[in-house]
Structures are given as C-alpha cells and as structure tokens.
Amino acid sequence: MVGPAAKREAVAHLRGVLEMSERRASSLVAADRKMIRYRSRRPADTELRARLRELANQRRRFGYRRLYILLRDEGEPSGINRIYRLYREEGLAVRKRRSRRKAVGTRAPILVEANQTPAGHSISSTTSLPAVAVCASSTSSMT
C-alpha cells in the first residue's frame, strides 16, 4: 500500500517529466486531487523534537510516558499522543540494559582427590548395595 506522500511525489513527477495534467496524473496514480493538493498546517516541532531527543539522551532508560511527564513538568502543553508520535518519528527507544560480562575462555574443572568426597554427599549413596538387594529379592519371588 502506497501512502499519500508517495502518491503526491508520483503525480509531481508525472506532471514535471511527462508534462501531464494534474487530473490525468492523479487518475493514473489512483489518487484524489484533493489529496494531491493537500498541504499540512501542522507547525514545525523542531524545538520540541530537540528537547525530546535531549531528554532521551540524558535519561536513556525512560520511555515516552516518563519523558512526557518531564516535558509536562517543564510546561510543555503537548499531549501524550503527540509526544508518542514524535518519539517514534525520531526513532527513539528505551536502551536495552547491557548483559553482564561473561568469563572469557574455558574454565578448568575443580578436581577432587580420590580419598575425598564432595561436600554433602555420603559414601553410602555412591554404593550400589541397595540396588543389588532389590534385584536379588525380585528374582527370588518370581521363582
């Protein structure tokens, strides 16, 4: 889907290069002539955009909602929807937190000597005597 701005450019190109009439060029592009002639009355937001970008660089972890509150406290009369639109148009986003640095290289395993057991483990848990007893009792009951 092509937006109105692209259609305006296409009509301007057809009129300039091919010397086509506005009516024919707009019908070729499938655009209404009122849309082609439309000029935005919205005032330039250069100061507000600059202040929003400045606050976003100072407070990197603040999203548009918290920046809106800061701007409102400074006396900016703009609403949250306008701040959100400018925030997106400026390409601002909350910066991601950096992950903690991981150890570089491979770690050497901790060697345990044969006479020592790791903490919390008893010697009886490593022997297989209970398993042998279970196997012996199950075979004697089946015969």
Radius of gyration: 36 Å
Order of helices and strands: HHHHHHHH
Q: Report the structural category.
A: mainly alpha
Taking the alpha carbons of the first and last residues, their distance comes to: 81 Å
Number of strands: 0
pLDDT below 50 for ≥5 consecutive residues: which ranges?
none
Q: Profile the largest sheet.
A: none
Q: What is the 3D shape?
A: elongated
Mean pLDDT: 84
The tally of helices reads: 8
Q: Give the proportion of residues in helices.
A: 55-70%
* Strand percent estimate: under 5%
Kindly describe this structure.
The chain is built from eight helices and no strands. The protein is mostly helical and 143 residues long. Among the domains are: 4-37; 46-89. The chain is elongated.
What's this model, at a glance?
The chain contains eight helices and no strands. The protein is mostly helical.
Secondary structure topology:
Blueprint: H1 4-17, H2 22-29, H3 33-37, H4 46-58, H5 64-74, H6 80-89, H7 123-126, H8 129-142
Helix pairs in contact: 1-2, 5-6
Observed structural traits:
mainly alpha; 143 residues; elongated; 8 helices; single chain
